[in-house]
């Protein structure tokens, strides 16, 4: 097995500071770390993580190691790895294979190196590990108990495999937990996308026409925060029910080609490809800003931008300006990759506290139920969702009501 593949171990002190900072705001995961340290529920198991490698995910990796697991970590996006955090994990004894701005070849090498541990459990973010295990690394499947998937995009890919009968081991959809999508997808994405955009552009949001394409939980969060910042928000949708919901939430709803004519800032949040493409670029006005909040860099279609433009400029760090024949400039943030991570620090620590607690407990569940689960995509068990929510409330000093025996009996009667 290879040694760590990181940029510079000397960056570790900065990474340790980042990890220590977020740990102070992740009380549920800290509680789980204490229990894992005492009970060692993951002892003897090998776990490979492919995830956005920053401080909060690093803390999750350390919690899994505290539970007795042998953990290897790699990135899930070439632009989201923070080199100082990767170095801190390596200094703490974890095997790390990731660095910022890796080439496609380097990125795939990192993924494969992390899999060389011959894992029993995988923690995936977008589905790259699952894809490798089903294609070029099939010899490792015999060791796999199962895995968990963090994102909407990854779950879509898993369910496509399941429908075709081609999923080779059980996977838990961490993304499907209430404590994940209600908070992580909505409040986490909503805040972190705007953190990334505002940090990168240094422009005001108030008064601008913001076009949000996709009104799922992530899109709802992005739109809600845009409204709070004073933007005039336009929603583009393909789902008639979500379109009505957006309308009743107070937003304008229109086709994306109509929105292309008036938008100042465009944010794609769909998980699909070519969401913004040639026909949109023709209609956009000079100075339009495009950002993607979906997992892969295919939503804002770059081949069309490359083909149509007569010049490409670096406007600022993480902003590429495409000069069109009529001299208008269309600006793409973070190469069309996840703007909240490629141009920011990702979701707030308090939000990821719940999501990563779901992940940790789901991994424990997979180990406890090894050999009992079918090769399909499972929802997070309800008891895990409620355990995380209950612990989170306790950490916030919030108490809630309980049903009396009489009330419970009434609700169960006909």
Automatic annotation (TrEMBL):
Binds 1 NAD(+) per subunit. Its EC number is 3.13.2.1. May play a key role in the regulation of the intracellular concentration of adenosylhomocysteine. Keywords: Cytoplasm, Hydrolase, NAD, One-carbon metabolism. Pathway: Amino-acid biosynthesis; L-homocysteine biosynthesis; L-homocysteine from S-adenosyl-L-homocysteine: step 1/1. The keyword NAD applies. The keyword NAD applies. Residues 185-346 form the S-adenosyl-L-homocysteine hydrolase NAD binding domain. NCBIfam families: ahcY (TIGR00936), PRK05476.2-3 (NF004005). NAD(+) binds at residues 151-153, 185, 214-221, 237, 293-295, 340, 347. The lineage of its organism: Bacteria, Bacillati, Bacillota, Tissierellia, Tissierellales. Its cofactor is NAD(+). Substrate binds at residues 125, 150, 180, 184. It comes from Acidilutibacter cellobiosedens. It is found in: Cytoplasm. Its main location: cytoplasm. This is Adenosylhomocysteinase. Belongs to the adenosylhomocysteinase family.
């Amino acid at each position: 097995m290879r040694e760590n593949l990181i940029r510079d171990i000397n960056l570790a002190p900065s990474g340790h500071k980042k990890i220590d900072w977020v740990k102070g705001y992740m009380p549920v995961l800290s509680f789980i770390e204490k229990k894992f340290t005492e009970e060692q529920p993951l002892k003897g198991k090998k776990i490979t993580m492919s995830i956005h490698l920053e401080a909060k995910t690093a803390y999750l990796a350390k919690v899994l190691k505290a539970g007795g697991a042998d953990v290897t970590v790699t990135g899930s996006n070439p632009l989201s790895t923070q080199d100082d955090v990767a170095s801190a994990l390596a200094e703490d004894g974890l095997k790390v294979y990731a660095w910022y701005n890796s080439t496609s070849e380097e990125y795939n090498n990192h993924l494969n190196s992390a899999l060389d541990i011959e894992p029993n459990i995988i923690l995936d973010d977008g589905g790259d590990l699952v894809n490798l295990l089903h294609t070029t690394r099939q010899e490792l499947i015999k060791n796999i108990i199962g895995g968990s998937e963090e994102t909407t995009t990854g779950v879509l890919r898993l369910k496509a495999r399941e429908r075709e009968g081609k999923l080779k081991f059980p996977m838990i959809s961490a993304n499907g937990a209430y404590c994940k999508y209600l908070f992580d997808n909505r409040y986490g994405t909503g805040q972190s996308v705007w953190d990334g955009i505002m940090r990168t552009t240094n422009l005001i949001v108030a008064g601008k026409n913001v076009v949000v394409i996709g009104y799922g939980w992530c899109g709802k969060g992005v739109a809600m925060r845009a409204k709070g910042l004073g933007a005039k928000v336009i929603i583009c949708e393909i789902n008639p029910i979500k379109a009505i919901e957006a309308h009743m939430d107070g937003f304008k709803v229109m086709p994306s080609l109509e929105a292309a004519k008036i938008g100042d800032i465009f944010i794609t949040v769909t998980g699909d490809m070519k969401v913004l493409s040639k026909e949109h670029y023709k209609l956009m006005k000079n100075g339009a800003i495009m950002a993607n909040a979906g997992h892969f860099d295919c939503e804002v279609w770059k081949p069309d931008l490359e083909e149509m433009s007569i010049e490409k400029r670096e406007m600022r760090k993480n902003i590429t300006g495409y000069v069109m024949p009529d001299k208008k400039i269309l600006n793409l943030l973070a190469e069309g990759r996840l703007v909240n991570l490629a141009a920011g620090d990702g979701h707030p620590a308090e939000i990821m506290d719940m999501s990563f607690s779901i992940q940790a407990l789901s991994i424990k569940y997979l180990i406890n139920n090894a050999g009992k689960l079918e090769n399909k995509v499972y929802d997070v068990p309800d008891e895990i969702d409620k355990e995380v929510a209950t612990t989170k409330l306790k950490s916030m000093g919030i108490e809630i009501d309980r049903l009396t025996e009489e009330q419970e009996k009434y609700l169960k009667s006909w």
